Amino acid sequence: MTKLRPIALRCEHHAAPMGLNRPAPRFDWALDGDGHNRCQSAYRLVVKAGENVLWDSGKVQSSRTRQIEYAGEVLVSDMHCTWTVMVWDEEDAASDWADAQHFRTGLMHPKDWRAQWIARYFVLPAGREAPADNSYDNRWQARPADHLRRDFATVERPVRATAYVSALGLYELYLNGARVDDAVMAPGWTDYHQRVEYQSYDVTDMVVAGANTIGALVGEGWYSGRVGHNQRRAGNHYGGRPALLCQVHLEYADGRIETIVSDGQWTTSQGPVCYSDFLMGEQYDARLEMPGWTEPGFDASRWQPVEVFAPDPRPPHLEASRAPQVRETVRFEGRYLRQAKTGGHIYDFGQNIAGFVALELSGKAGDRFTLRHGEVLDGEGELYVANLRHAVATDHYIAKGEGREHFKPRFTFHGFRYVELTLPDGSSPDDVTLTGNAIHNDLPLTASMRTGLDMVNQLLSNIEWSQRDNFISVPTDCPQRDERYGWSADAQVFWKTAGYVMDVSAFLEKWFEDIAEAQLPDGAFTDVAPSKPLNPYRITAQPGAPGWGDAPVILAWQHWLRYGDRALVEKHYDRLVAWLKHIADANPDHLRINAVYNNYGDWLSVGPASDRTMVATAYWVLVADLMAKLSGVAGRADMVAHYKAQAKAVRAAFIAAFVDDDGRITGDTQTAYLLALDFAILPSDLHRKAAAHLLRKLDEAEGHLQTGFLGVKHLCPVLSDIGSPQRAYDLLLNETYPSWGFSIAQGATTIWERWDGWTRENGFQSVNMNSFNHYAYGAVGEWLYARVAGIDWDEDAPGFSSIRMRPLFDKRLGWIEAHYDAPTGRIESAWRIAGEIVTWDIRIPPNCSARIELPRAPLSIHSGEASLPSTGPTTTLDSGRYTLTIPI
Ligand code: BGC
Fold first, then answer.
1. Distance in angstroms (rounded) separating the CA atoms of residues 320 and 440
2. By alpha-carbon position, which residue is closest to atom 1 of ligand 1?
3. What is the pLDDT of residues 180-228, one digit of tens each?
4. What is the pTM of this model?
5. Ligand 1: which atom is nearest the Cα of residue 229?
6. Residues sharing a CB contact under 8 Å with residue 738, sequence separation 6 or more, in sequence order
7. pLDDT tens, position by position, 747-799
8. Is 402 tagged catalytic?
9. Which atom of ligand 1 is found nearest the CA of 598?
10. Which residues are near ligand 1 (CB < 6 Å)?
């Protein structure tokens, strides 16, 4: 038995938050330690600023490891704090102190901000006519990035220096010639008309005594750059030029604090970044570089004064970054494939990623190197870009002609696996090195799973990569074409999967603010959040369709189950109520006919389409049920009965309108049965009959799935629940169209938007909508982790205080090895089939127990040397490691 140990310390769901958005932060930790029935009996948490103890909780008798709210001295702005925790185990033996973590308070109040928004003076482009059609004229719409700088002097070196920075647009911050941080796409996407996030950086080591220079490069990003698919209003969704806000606090040994802020003392110039835009790409002319522009002594006499201004329509509310920043996370070497018909050269990075290519090259001054990006190659091996729609996705580098040169674009990203590099005359591919840099919010990876089948392993990898590639400030539909919105249904069907792959708690807290801000006054949630660039000609945002607008309810519920964190539910509860009221007011007969907006139905299904009113009403049952539960979580017991009654009435209306006595549901589609079964809409006799219809539908499709975005998530879980897990495995292992395996057989390294994105018979699907990187169909991941590996949450004990372990064994898969770093600690599950016996090894972390549900009673249960008494197929196990043998 080892000592209990607090691990994975989190403050506000962050390893080290850069600022707080609440006066009393919340602390969480997990536990590590071997042995049986280990649990925490008490904890003691200490928060310090330097040597000064701000809060010592003392020894608190409690098994709680989550959401411990700070209760010490009042926290003020601009503090650097450290915290640690120790715990006592079941026998009152004390642990060591955990490795201390830190957090910053940031600028907690609007009045702390002395910096002003600055930007280059606004010059409207002259003589531009609105594009006459949907064509996209980059040459005129692209704008150079702005350089902003200011020199400042200090008498002595500060003992502590912190930079607080934000932008309307994107920024990179430099101090004395070096970047302060390697985050990209900061400050991220929010509705800049309402709110923008700021970041804080510890720059103590970068400030010197004497002359210093601070510089920032700002680009357009989501603020004024091209976002979305509406080419008549491609950019300028929030404003016409990027702007910077920057405040540096210098604290001296004697306690004096000096502040350097963005104000009228800064100057601005344009430089080598001719333009840098999400959809277009970047053009960089190295001949225009201004060496030393972020260092003292640089001659900025020809730079322009900046404009100090108040952003329209009002300065946004500033909040500390809620989620870990977007960073470059994985690099891929470009492999040379062949010369293209265009004369360019095609390279393969081996993985479809979101990010950009770094070039190392040599050339003559003025030589142009051009990179076009694509996800796939066409039948002739040429770069296929038709599916990018208006995303030009092209980077240009113009050499300065000085030895080895390096280029990496800044304020753009592309969705690609392949590039076509066009070289200047006289240059050869041998002279160029290409590295693909994947970017995404740098959230902790929390699970891994390997199995006995390569195809399934590739599927797990494709799921993880589609998540990485689409977690760029908001969860997007796709990272490549002129879309990249935070589509809500895509996220909700995928969210349970996403929560295994990464710790999505902080990321959801951030996105939920976007969702909340986009909500319309009549209670309607929106199809996408942030909402502005979608349909920019509408006065108000596009209200959410069934399954889309319902997403916030589902996300809040999942957040509660996975993290056991009530705060998000409490904070947004009234918004969820408003959404349900919006639906109920419009549909007094309890069929969801009105207020369905773009009613996408079971989007992109193959085979017969599901009835949209049926799908919408089924979703109403789900969200009414969840609201009854969430009302309990939010301490609104008064509302529980209301939602239960609503769910009951909608169920009755659903059955009356769509279900016959034989359990057949209107439209007779797989998705119809899947929703009715998984949302438990039918009484038991009809439920049984509907289950039989589902199996019949699968037979009719020769064992193939036919669902779209809304149905897909329920396929394997429902088949498992109705006693046909082997049918779920059939779908998983299928390699013929339509199936996950089909895309993998075609070489997919991410999840496709469409089952038929490419088929042998028809080639590519419509160029209008054919992404090879959409995570929605990756929703099968939750079944792999929760059911195949058997690591599921337990609704009765949220936050993985209890684990529901219902593994599904299958000889074809052979074996699996999985772990998940739950909020309570690491859960492990590994099984292997030999002959007719499964051997299953599990680890249940301290402070946690598992409800085991097996297909058959185990033959034996061992823990180390000890053999445990035999049990039936269901049993409960405490923390520890166990080996079970089970007949199959
Ligand atoms: C997006 C989606 C989204 C859908 C709504 C598409 O253009 O890519 O994934 O959910 O529109 O129907």
1. 19
2. 477
3. 999 999 999 999 999 999 999 999 999 999 999 999 999 999 999 999 9
4. 0.97
5. 7
6. 606, 704, 705, 706, 755, 756
7. 999 999 999 899 888 899 988 899 999 999 999 999 999 999 999 999 999 99
8. no
9. 12
10. 477-478, 483, 487, 489-490, 600, 603, 769, 774
